[in-house]
Design brief:
Two copies of one chain form a homodimer. By secondary structure, the first copy, chain A, is of the alpha/beta class. Chain A has two domains: 11-180, Rossmann fold (3-Layer(aba) Sandwich); 186-389, Up-down Bundle (Dehydroquinate synthase-like, alpha domain). Helix content of chain A is 49%, strand content 11%. Chain A contains 15 helices and nine strands. Chain A has a six-stranded parallel sheet with strand order 2-9-6-5-3-4, sandwiched between helices. A two-stranded antiparallel ribbon of chain A has the order 7-8. The longest helix of chain A is centred in the middle third of the chain and has 23 residues, at 212-234. Chain A starts with a strand and ends with a helix.
Chain lengths: 390, 390
């Protein structure tokens, strides 16, 4: 087991009606004038945003707004937020929405106390050491950003989709009401479920030996997701199933599935290029890229994929290579069952430019990346080809 | 799934050599003059305490000391610590040791900003709303106090052993080096393992339905403990096994196994009387009381005990009552295999005063306590009798 630091300092307030505590939590964390960051659709239509603003008004909390954040959030919106935040003198950021709004909020929070360009943090030129406090009212369980210090932004110039992280960017609080997820369409629900599974698998596929406690927790979260996912697809207003899925999304990414091992994250890198170039939903891109990555990886290194197959999908097969293969099939079957595409074709990408994708991923992730297996441009091309042909 | 708040705001620094970061972490959290709280034995003999003090000296951090904390820590030591802390004007508390030192440190930390008697918090007269910051260098994986806001103290007058908790008492940081646990004797190691399993089981045996995610995480931590425990007993210097056990002890009690359900904690109540009256090791007392509680509870409510049997001990039996029974047997067999007593006799209590124990537990826990099943004085007597006769 490797040395590690785990500092999960977010206050999670979970359950029915908790969004009504937003003013109280802002006050508790000394957040006196937040910039409210949100998207384009559901938080406005559902009336949630109005309710949040009303509860701030009632407590006399001033705020300014940044709406219109899009999925796969972009740098131009961050720059817009930074300008508003500076002009209005906000002291904190409140995201109302899902991963895109939260990641944009974190980017702005990191940028405010920094003199340089915020993109420095994403391209690796600088490290975040301080940030404005961030609060969250979560409406989409998927990215896990409500409990992590991570953020992913796409730079429009060149379509570079890059992530970065720091414990100082962990939200101070996250208000999580599963009822707010009742209206999520099935496809978006399934894409979110895929995203949370991928967050666990990126941590799970590791060569660090003897991390039984972290393996078992990760397998437990995966098993819970697999049990609860069909329920939320069948009945979007099943409160308990929505609650299980929502909390699973947080545990998938807050670090409790990380402790003591090297992580992989190659598949996220591979998928980010798909999202950036073809503008696919992140979770759906992962449903295509993870089986493809596993199909290639098991040839070199089947052991952990076989363990995944046995412990998560109850595959009874002693041979590692065969078990791994059956595990990949079981994963695809599960993803298909919840309505998420597992091939590029199903995703609407008929003739993917695998050479361009492989070139871009090595530009962004490095000439050689990944840990469970090492990936260079040639291997990346192979994996994209598997995804294209499967 | 019930509403819940989960605020796990401890910074865990885990791995080889992390105790050397104590001065750095004290400084990071603004702890300028700590009271160092420790026990009588191993932290002194091993030289750890001297190393901690030396590293504080080197950084010019002032400190005062409170040594001699005993297992099942008592109020008199807390009062002694409060007096020293007030006189010397400390601003924080640093526990070096296991649960007893940490629980004493938390009691002192809560008492300092409070005008009344610190026991008010334990007997339910007052709630902790502020406290001095607490830091931890952990040497005994068992109580999970390094990652919880809980503390248990015994009042010598009447031998009342009571616990209380508040998020403000969660340690700011916990330095956890598994190497520091190499010298723990097998019996103490096994008692610690039992304690952590009990922490999970108190949360797991719940009537709250549809908490799959929390169940799966809890089962995962239990399975990891069951795999790793025999390794640390067989080879006390197996670093990875010690690391898995140490981290399991934290996850068992920091709340990640709690989310969204009513908890039980009856068995801890029952055991606290055993510890208080017969001065047995807490973990060993739990190894006796948990199977006894389960043996009684399964008659009224076998469902969750059957799930425990199937998912944690892989019992393949469809009938709930039979599965539960086999699960209890498997648990006893496991505990026996790591060298921990599972009967009062093995614990050296030949003729327990079950009437006195039942009287005291209802005095301390209430006339009716427990959630998975309801326990009154008569039922408590029955459970103590099962433990006495088994």
């Amino acid at each position: 087991m490797n040395n590690f630091v785990f500092y999960p300092a977010t206050k999670y307030v979970f359950g029915k009606g908790v969004e009504n505590k937003v003013a109280k939590e802002l006050q508790a964390f000394g957040m006196k004038k937040p910039l409210i960051v949100y998207g384009k659709g559901s938080v406005i239509k559902s009336g949630l945003l109005d309710r949040v603003k009303k509860s701030l008004d009632e407590e006399g909390i001033q705020y300014v707004e940044l709406g219109g954040v899009q999925p796969n959030p972009v740098d131009s919106k961050v720059y817009e937020g930074i300008e508003i935040a500076k002009k209005e003198g906000v002291d904190s950021v409140l995201a109302v929405g899902g991963g895109s709004s939260i990641d944009t909020a974190k980017a702005i929070a990191a940028a405010l106390p920094y003199e340089g360009d915020f993109w420095d943090f994403y391209c690796g030129k600088a490290k975040v050491t301080k940030a404005l406090p961030v609060g969250v009212v979560l409406t989409i369980p998927a990215a896990g950003s409500e409990g992590s210090g991570n953020t992913v932004i796409t730079k429009l110039d060149g379509l570079h989709k890059l992530g970065m992280g720091s414990d100082v960017l962990r939200p101070k609080f996250a208000l999580m009401n599963p009822e707010l997820t009742f209206t999520l369409p099935p496809y978006q629900t399934a894409a979110g479920i895929t995203d949370m599974m991928a967050h666990i698998m990126e941590r799970y596929f590791s060569n660090t030996p003897n991390v039984e406690i972290t393996d078992r927790v990760a397998e437990g979260v995966l098993k819970a997701i697999i049990t609860e996912a069909p329920k939320v697809i069948a009945n979007p207003e099943d409160y308990d199933a929505r609650a299980n899925i929502m909390w699973s999304g947080t545990l998938a990414h807050n670090g409790v599935c990380s402790g003591g091992r090297e992580e992989d994250w190659a598949t996220h890198g591979l998928e980010h290029e798909l999202s950036a170039v073809y503008d696919v939903t992140h979770g759906a891109g992962l449903a295509v890229m993870f089986p493809a990555w596993m199909t290639h990886a098991m040839k070199e290194n089947p052991a952990k994929i076989a363990q995944f197959a046995r412990r998560v999908f109850d595959i009874e097969e002693k041979d590692d290579a065969k078990a791994a293969e059956l595990g990949i099939e079981a994963l695809k079957k599960f993803l298909t069952s919840i309505g998420i595409p597992v091939t590029m074709k199903e995703l609407g990408i008929e003739n993917p430019d695998v050479k361009l994708l492989a070139k871009k991923v090595t530009e962004n992730k490095g000439e050689i990346f990944g840990n469970y297996i090492k990936i260079d441009r040639e291997v990346a091309e192979k994996i994209y080809s598997i995804a294209a042909e499967s």
